[in-house]
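Table S2 (continued). Query chain:
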Amino acid sequence: MFSLFPRTSNRFLTADEQEQVVAAVREAEQRTSGEVRVYIESKCSYVDPLRRAVELFHGLQMERTKEKNGVLVYVAVKDRQVAVFGDSGIHERVGEAFWQGEVQKMLQHFRNKDYASGLAAVVKDIGEVLHQHFPYDGATDKNELPDDIVFGA
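Corresponding output:
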């Protein structure tokens, strides 16, 4: 059977690959006031992964960013589902087509079992658009959310 993902989330990324993704988040956030989080779990509790991403976005309190510029990258390993959700501040500037393009980019990498690079590439792209619309200001910016990957059940 063809699968884009390994069978379990704990084998989805090695420790080095996890660090690659976290480093991409940190690098992206150095140039913007925006916040990026990556959430990986085994199964999606909804048919639509975007609905799950929205639920997690609020569960992680990502809507609390001052400029409404938080972005969640979501992966459900066993269900082979992904989504990218951006808060209203960034979504109004980039639109649905941008998020869908990033999902497709991630899936292209995943087809080659290049999970960490796929996640890092998407995080980098998100960082670029966040930088364009919400550039870093050393006098006022603070890291509002943790940079680590969140692993769900």
